[in-house]
């Protein structure tokens, strides 16, 4: 929560406890400790700005009706020097508190004083968190699931950083194992076909059939000709993979940087095999009696450690499975000193969650420190219909296609408008529409509108100045107070988003802030009011602009000054 909100809640608690102590000293309440009580925002603001259930939770300890306890507290309640000007008892014994003008003035002053740091807190206490996201298969282009996972994972990392965690972004490159073998076989077939014709080599049914494989093979042939045609198959495939894989990874770098995603590390799966980390984790599980051999393969007793069934670690041919490498990778993460590791996975990985957490427990790590965010599917919509193919290429829509069609601001905002656990429709028409119907345009327009207020007044020689607390306390209309309360909630919203791993809270916050500003602007004049009130309203405009800009920056979305 913001500093001012925290102070207000602290003042409320202290005032209630002091009132109970005074009532006890007067013989009106028993001399007994007050049980922990909640302070929260009532559902209806007409009932107060904050509510405390101190009287309710004290009924058993005091052996008195809650309403009577509440009335005793009110009788001895002293609110001088606090951010509250009155309180009342409601219902069976709730205590409702009403914020004073000093609170609203303090919030505006605090937002302006903190500038681009407003909203940041030390809630996370510097704990180290890794967010691993996208980690798309490097054998082909990134798809819509990666587009959603990229926006959500990156914004989640930003939210955690703002909430006071030390955050590390990582992309896990699956550059080893079955999919790389399949990549090599696919490239080999297309290379031979390119040079000798379609009938010269058969492309296996389970191989990669995308046009990108053909393109790699053709480019490789243009560079090396028939040099590898008569080479041993292993050598030919290795050369093709060594050529094509870095190109795919470089394309991923390029597309994700266009998407405003920059990782602290691109971690190679192959490094786990080369370092012996995969073999080491298999040996560790074996030493704990958690493996057995069957049909020439080494199996892990996953069913005894959270999994639905036992899993193969080493195939009969001696090659480790992806699961074995994945255990080694997660062990590596925790060995690097991260307190929490968050994986952003597609919903098809649902069955992998329990077995991976169980594997962490099995090797002596705490599986509860591994958090999984599962992302549901995305449907692209245009003209009210589902879109599966790119009009330009006639192929399945890729991340790069989306970013050619839709502004990055819109893509990042739209993908963060829904919780990861819900399926979403991405409306391509709406994403490019320049109207208030487009959520990101609506929010950006609010920022630009505030900038234009200052620009127009400056042209008339009116400049903002620092306001006194007394001047800011004049912001007393319902629209002003509602807007200021929302500004005050920003820090708490970031903390809530960090706790729930839900960056969608920030897009919702932005849309509500834009709505409340437009409501204020349409009701309360800025220009033409007497100078002290005009300056106070300019200060509120500046605080709103500042908070909008900070929230959009959290999402890596531009805050334009004109539109």
Task: Provide the fold topology.
Elements: H1 3-25, E1 39-40, E2 50-52, H2 54-62, H3 66-76, E3 84-90, E4 94-99, H4 101-114, E5 128-132, H5 144-162, E6 166-173, H6 178-196, H7 211-224, H8 233-258, E7 265-268, H9 269-275, H10 277-287, E8 291-294, E9 297-300, E10 311-314, H11 322-335, E11 340-346, H12 350-362, E12 370-375, E13 378-382, E14 385-387, H13 399-405, H14 408-415, E15 424-427, H15 428-432, H16 439-459, H17 469-472, H18 478-488, H19 490-500, H20 504-523, H21 531-554
Parallel strand pairs: 5-6, 5-11, 6-7, 11-12, 13-15
Antiparallel strand pairs: 1-2, 2-4, 3-4, 8-9, 9-10, 13-14
Helix pairs in contact: 1-3, 1-4, 2-3, 4-18, 4-21, 5-14, 5-19, 6-7, 6-8, 10-11, 16-20, 16-21, 18-20, 18-21, 19-20, 20-21
What would you note in describing this structure?
With 563 residues, this protein is α/β, with parallel strands linked by helices. The chain has 21 helices and 15 strands. A hairpin with a 2-residue loop joins β8 and β9.
Can you tag this structure with a few keywords?
about 575 residues; alpha/beta; 5-stranded parallel beta sheet; 4-stranded antiparallel beta sheet; 21 helices; 15 strands; flat
Shape: flat
Contiguous helical run count = 21
User: Structural class of the helices, strands and pairings?
Assistant: alpha/beta
Low-confidence stretches: none
Please outline the major beta sheet. 5 strands, parallel
Quote the average pLDDT. 95
Oligomer: single chain
Query: What is the β-strand count?
Result: 15
Proportion of residues in extended strands: 5-15%
């Amino acid at each position: 929560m913001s500093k001012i909100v925290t102070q207000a809640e602290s003042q409320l608690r202290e005032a209630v406890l002091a009132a109970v102590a005074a009532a006890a000293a007067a013989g009106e309440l028993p001399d007994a400790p007050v049980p922990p009580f909640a302070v929260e925002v009532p559902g209806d603001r007409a009932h107060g700005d904050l509510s405390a259930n101190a009287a309710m939770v004290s009924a058993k300890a005091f052996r008195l009706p809650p309403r009577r306890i509440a009335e005793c507290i009110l009788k001895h309640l002293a609110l001088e020097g606090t951010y509250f000007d009155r309180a009342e008892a409601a219902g069976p014994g709730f205590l409702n508190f009403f914020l004073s003008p000093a609170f609203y003035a303090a919030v505006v002053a605090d937002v302006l004083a903190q500038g681009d740091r407003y909203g940041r807190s030390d809630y996370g206490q510097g704990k180290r968190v890794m967010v691993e996201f996208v980690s798309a298969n490097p054998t082909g282009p990134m798809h819509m699931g990666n587009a959603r996972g990229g926006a959500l994972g990156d914004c989640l990392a930003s939210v955690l950083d703002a909430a006071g965690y030390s955050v590390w972004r990582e992309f896990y490159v699956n550059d080893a194992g079955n999919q790389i073998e399949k990549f090599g076989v696919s490239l080999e077939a297309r290379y031979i076909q390119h040079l000798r014709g379609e009938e010269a080599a058969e492309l296996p049914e389970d191989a990669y059939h995308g046009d990108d494989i053909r393109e790699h093979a053709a480019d490789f042939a243009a560079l090396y000709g028939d040099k590898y045609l008569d080479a041993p198959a292993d050598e030919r495939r290795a050369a093709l993979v060594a050529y094509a894989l870095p190109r795919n990874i470089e394309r991923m770098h390029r597309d994700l940087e266009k998407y405003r995603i920059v990782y602290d590390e691109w971690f190679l799966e192959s490094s786990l095999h080369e370092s012996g980390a995969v073999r080491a984790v298999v040996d560790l599980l074996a030493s704990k009696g958690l493996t057995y051999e069957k049909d020439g393969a080494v199996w892990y007793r996953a069913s005894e450690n959270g999994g639905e069934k036992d899993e193969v670690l080493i195939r009969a041919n001696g090659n480790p499975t992806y699961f074995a490498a994945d255990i080694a990778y997660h062990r590596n993460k925790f060995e690097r000193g991260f307190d929490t590791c968050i994986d952003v996975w597609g919903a098809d990985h649902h069955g992998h969650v329990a077995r991976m957490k169980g594997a962490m427990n099995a090797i002596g790590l705490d599986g509860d420190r591994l958090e999984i965010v599962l992302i549901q599917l995305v449907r692209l919509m245009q003209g009210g219909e589902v879109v599966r193919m790119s009009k330009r290429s006639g192929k399945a829509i890729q991340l790069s296609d989306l970013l050619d069609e839709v502004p990055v601001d819109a893509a990042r905002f739209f993908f963060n408008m829904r919780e990861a656990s819900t399926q979403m429709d991405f409306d391509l028409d709406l994403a490019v529409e320049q109207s208030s119907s487009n959520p990101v345009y609506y929010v950006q327009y609010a920022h630009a509108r505030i900038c234009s207020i200052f620009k127009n007044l400056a042209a008339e020689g009116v400049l903002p100045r620092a306001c006194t607390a007394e001047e800011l306390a004049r912001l007393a209309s319902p629209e002003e107070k509602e807007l200021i309360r929302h500004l005050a909630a920003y820090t708490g919203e970031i903390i809530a988003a960090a706790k729930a791993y839900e960056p969608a809270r920030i897009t919702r916050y932005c849309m509500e802030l834009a709505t409340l500003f437009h409501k204020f602007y349409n009701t309360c004049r800025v220009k033409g009011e007497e100078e002290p009130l005009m300056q106070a309203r300019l200060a509120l405009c500046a605080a709103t602009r500042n908070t909008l800009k900070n929230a959009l920056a959290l999402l890596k979305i531009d805050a334009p000054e004109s539109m």
